[in-house]
Amino acid sequence: MHLDSINHPKLRTWIDEMVQMCMPDDVYVCDGSQEEANRLSERLLRSGSFKKLEKRPGSFYAFSDPGDVARVENNTYICSRFREEAGPTNNWADPQEMKGELMQRFFGSMRGRTMYVIPFSMGPIGGPLSHIGIELTDSIYVVLNMRIMTRMGSKVLEALGRDGTFVKCLHSVGYPLTPGRHDKPWPCDANNKYIVHFPEERAIWSYGSGYGGNALLGKKCFALRIASVMARDQGWLAEHMLILGITNPEGKKRYIAAAFPSACGKTNLAMLVPTLPGWKVETVGDDIAWMRWGEDGQLYAINPEYGYFGVAPGTSMQSNPNAMKTIEKNTIFTNVARTPDGDVWWEGIGYDPPEGLITWLQEPYDPKSGKPAAHPNARFTAPAKQCPVIDPAWEDPNGVPISAILFGGRRAGTVPLVHEAMDWSHGVFMGAIVSSETTAAASGAVGQLRRDPFAMLPFCGYNMADYFHHWLRMGERTGVKHPKFYYVNWFRKNKEGKFLWPGYGENSRVLKWIFERCEGIGKAQESAIGNLPAPGALDLTGLKISEEAMKELLTVNAEEWLADIPGIRVFFNSFDDFPEQLMERLDWLEKRLKT
Fold first, then answer.
1. Residue 264 confidence class, pLDDT cut points 50, 70, 90
2. 214 near 73, Cβ under 8 Å?
3. Distance CA 579, CA 476 (A)
4. Residue 279, Cα to own-chain centre: how many angstroms?
5. What is the mean pLDDT of residues 54-80?
6. 308-386 belongs to which CATH class?
């Protein structure tokens, strides 16, 4: 569509200003149609940026620059007016100074390229919990991924009207095609990346990276960092959570939200295939939940996304058969390995690499080299509606009612398989002490213990002490029905370093207990850290697991927990104005562990 199709004066003024700064050769407004997607895909095929996958209809393969493979948290900034607003866990920069620095980067950054205007809705278009963004980008890869990940195109402009509010998202790969400079399959400015948020302005500027959450600005940047500020100001919650529906054999259904750090099995849990007969799990979303109290006092959640941006390595018919079925067509694969017959492969896919495999670095695969065929953070972008277990209510604009909220992470020890909070503030405390051993989804060392409260540490757009206050306040509202809170850990290991719990579909046994607790029939016993399943309360029918392993999985080792408390206290004390209520909970926990 032509720029003249935009009849929103403020939007048009902003686009004109950005055009003046970025200097693209052309401006194109995306309509979101299939014809448009075909045309743009053809351009990437001709340039070598895309390769067609003959084995998967409508699917493409892309490979990135080796210097542009994951989120870059060191280069991610929250530019609020005051440093205190960002808090100690965010990179803060003065908004005026940062804007000045970025303007130099963006000046002429789109020369020789087209600026694509992407109107997108997070959540069903026009829904009461939905919000609109406009992303300006010089990357066709971003356009095609945003078309999968969000509701994108002319219908969004119609919903925006002449005076609707929108989040301003500006993105450039930072590789202008100046005279004599040739384009690359993956253009970027790998040594100069900036992912910058201006919360008061409701704006995001991203420069230099073309990858994932750095460039698909509807994802973590808008849906979490900016939305978390909007949620605080407007009285709702923007969370790094999956949403699933679980139905028992009698047909009773409940919805659960769950927060796990990246690459800790969110997508696997969201698309779980239960091993328990008669139980069914359906997915509303695998990554982000926007939640608010309904007029009936119930907590309701929507998945603001329209697709899945999942980690490919480790995804298999064993770990996640529904994800494997979802990505059979109309999917964009990035940094996986490519087979000679036009398919994809990655470590953990469940079968040996075929002959003639080409790695994500575009080299013949040599297993002796020790280098993986697929990058550990290789991704697939697939439409959510292709998921065979998509929940019938996944596009309900009013959301689904949440009965329980789960927290979890990768912990080889200390944390039991599952325990339940006593009340809302204890649940918020549980969320505040989430920690996990790091993975490849974020740049940095792998295997270190990292504090990641609510799995939001890299994604909260303001001071996390205020974030905890906001959660506590949300629970203090009168006339609301609190969901139950749980902490789960599928990753506990024995002394030999082997997982004690089989995980995957067997996690439905834990979900069944949680379901029964919400129904008021599940049995529990109190421990120092919260309620554990009572003996026999977890349905282990048909599961080959020793009594010794189950005992270890549900053991609360006071010494291990007490060893964890000083680190939690240091973390809590790193904030000014940290909620006294949560400090008291920590003292309460320590006292209970010592008695």
1. confident
2. no
3. 14
4. 26
5. 96
6. mainly beta
> Mapping DSSP to helix (H, G, I), strand (E, B) and coil, where does residue 14 land?
helix
pLDDT for the residue 444: 53
Question: 3-state DSSP: the chain helix, strand, coil percent, rounded to 5?
Answer: 30, 25, 45
First-to-last alpha carbon distance for the chain, in angstroms, is 69
Is residue 553 within 8 A of residue 586, CB to CB? The reply is no
Q: Contact, 26 vs 140, CB < 8 A?
A: no
Options 169, 264, 387, 460, the catalytic residue: 264
Q: Where are the beta strands (DSSP E) in 9-165?
A: 26-29, 51-52, 60-62, 76-78, 91-92, 114-122, 131-137, 151-152
Q: What is the pLDDT of residues 90-132, one digit of tens each?
A: 999 999 999 999 999 999 999 999 999 999 999 999 999 999 9
Looking at 319-476, which runs of residues are DSSP E strands? 332-334, 337-338, 344-345, 379-383, 400-408, 418-420, 435-437, 449-451
pLDDT for position 266: 87
Using an 8 Å Cβ cutoff, are 399 and 130 in contact?
no
State the fold for domain 3-30+75-234: Phosphoenolpyruvate Carboxykinase; domain 1 (3.40.449)
Average pLDDT over residues 257-285: 92
Question: Residue ranges of the domains in the chain?
Answer: 3-30+75-234, 238-303+394-594, 308-386
Strand 289-293 and strand 299-302: the pairing is: antiparallel
Overall size of the chain counted in residues: 595
Rounded CA-CA distance 512/492 in Å is 20
264 included as an active-site residue: yes
In angstroms, rounded to a whole number, what is the distance separating the alpha carbons of residues 62 and 184?
A: 12
Cβ-contact 533, 555 below 8 angstroms = no
Question: 207 CB contacts (<8 Å, ≥6 apart)?
Answer: 102, 105, 106, 109, 171, 172, 174, 189, 192, 193, 194, 196
Residue 329's Cβ-count burial label (10 Å; 0-12, 13-18, 19+) is middle
Q: What are phi and psi of 395, to 5 degrees?
A: -105, 15
Please state whether beta strands 237-239 and 242-247 pair in parallel, antiparallel, or not at all (unpaired). Answer: unpaired
| Residue range 436-494, pLDDT digits in tens | 876 554 545 556 788 999 999 999 999 999 999 999 999 999 999 999 999 999 999 99
| CA atoms 344, 349, 354, 359: torsion sign | positive
Ramachandran class of 235: left when φ > 0, alpha when ψ lies in -120 to 50, beta otherwise: left
CB environment 159-171: b (16+ within 10 A), e (fewer)? bbeeeeebbbbbb
Which residues make Cβ contacts (< 8 Å) with residue 515, sequence separation at least 6? 246, 248, 254, 403, 522
CA distances from 500 to 251, 276, 316, 413, 493 (A): 31, 19, 21, 10, 5
CATH fold group of domain 238-303+394-594: Phosphoenolpyruvate Carboxykinase; domain 3 (3.90.228)
Q: Alpha-carbon distance 20 to 50, whole Å? A: 30
DSSP string over 91-129: EE--HHHHHHHHHHHHTTTTTTSEEEEEEEEESSTT-TT
55: helix, strand or coil? coil
Dist CA 301 CA 330 (whole Å):
27
According to the model, what pLDDT value does residue 439 have?
A: 56
